[in-house]
Design brief:
Layout lengths: L1 E5 L6 E5 L3 E4 L19 E9 L3 E10 L4 E5 L6 H8 L7 E6 L2 E2 L5 H4 L3 E4 L11 H6 L14 H13 L15 H14 L4 E5 L7 H14 L12 E5 L3 H7 L2 E5 L5 E3 L15
Parallel strand pairs: 6-11, 6-12, 9-10, 10-11
Antiparallel strand pairs: 1-2, 2-3, 4-5, 4-7, 7-8, 12-13
Helix pairs in contact: 4-5
Length: 281
């Protein structure tokens, strides 16, 4: 059952969901110097969703995500954050309930089409991959290529934009197994950006980063949610699992806490976003 309560304080909106509660604020990072990205009118929601394996880790999840939302998933290890993200990505079947994107149930969406709508960045970089950085990032264009899997000039433009945004140009011809864990994390994110989706899911992307780089990552993700971005794929809806509670409070628009007892609960955490640009260290 979805209950919505609107506060009368400025633009803050409280969305109450049983058993979870999301609290939002419209204070987002923008840059007026960049071209406006067209509004894609993306809608993304779950209804009576339960996720888990032999038993549910989180249940009765019913809520809507709006275009440009930045949602942080918090909770102890094993509480269901990663399982929730993998279920949304279509990698794990839900125990019950539905997930819809623009009114279409993801279980009915062909994998190639779903990959044009949702990109997932796992917590661990695939150990078996030993290709060049450019080639790995280019894999993000696979859902968009023709039957011959040929990369067009537009594909190259998107790939290079992702590489430049993550400042990976100097590593583009290096094999990924010669990179640090933190650098491989940026390569994974660049591949997801090259995938050019409206929804971006990230599973603990700060795990191998030093603290200054964690801050820069959150600032960069905030920029991706705005319609004024260096990337033409701005205005993304982002869900990120994290243990960085201080950064989640500061940068995310909404927070969803997982308790690991079969439910998820809410935290009344409002936040503000600094109007600064991102520079990778």
């Amino acid at each position: 059952m979805l209950n919505k309560t609107a506060n009368n304080y400025k633009t803050d909106i409280v969305i109450s969901v049983r058993p979870c509660r999301l609290v939002g604020s419209d204070d987002l990072l923008t840059s007026s110097s960049e071209p406006t990205i067209p509004n894609r009118q993306m809608s993304f929601c779950t209804k009576n969703l339960s996720v888990g394996y032999a038993f549910p880790l989180a249940s009765n999840l019913s809520f809507n995500f709006d275009e440009g939302d930045f949602i942080a998933l918090i909770g102890r290890n094993g509480s269901g954050k990663s399982t929730f993200l993998k279920t949304i990505a279509g990698l794990i079947k839900p125990l019950c309930g539905n997930i819809t994107v623009s009114g279409e149930n993801i279980s009915a969406i062909p994998p190639r089409k779903l990959a044009k709508q949702i990109a997932f960045v796992p917590a661990a970089f695939p150990s078996e991959v030993n290709i060049k950085v450019f080639d790995f990032i280019a894999l993000g264009r696979t859902p968009h290529t023709n039957i011959f899997d040929r990369i067009t000039s537009r594909d190259l433009e998107i790939i290079n934009t992702a590489i430049n945004c993550l400042e990976l140009t100097e590593f583009s011809n290096r094999r990924v197994n010669f990179l640090s864990d933190g650098q491989r994390g940026r390569v994974s994110l660049a591949r997801a950006l090259a995938q050019d989706t409206d929804i971006l899911l990230l599973d603990e992307p700060t795990a191998f980063l030093d603290y200054p780089s964690r801050i820069k990552l959150f600032k960069f993700l905030t920029q991706l949610t705005t319609p004024h971005s260096a990337l033409r794929t701005g205005g993304k809806t982002i869900l990120i699992s994290t243990h960085e509670l201080d950064l989640a409070k500061k940068f995310s628009k909404k927070i969803l806490q997982f308790t690991g007892d079969g439910n998820s609960t809410g935290t009344a955490l409002l936040n503000t976003v600094e109007n600064t640009t991102v520079e990778w260290g």
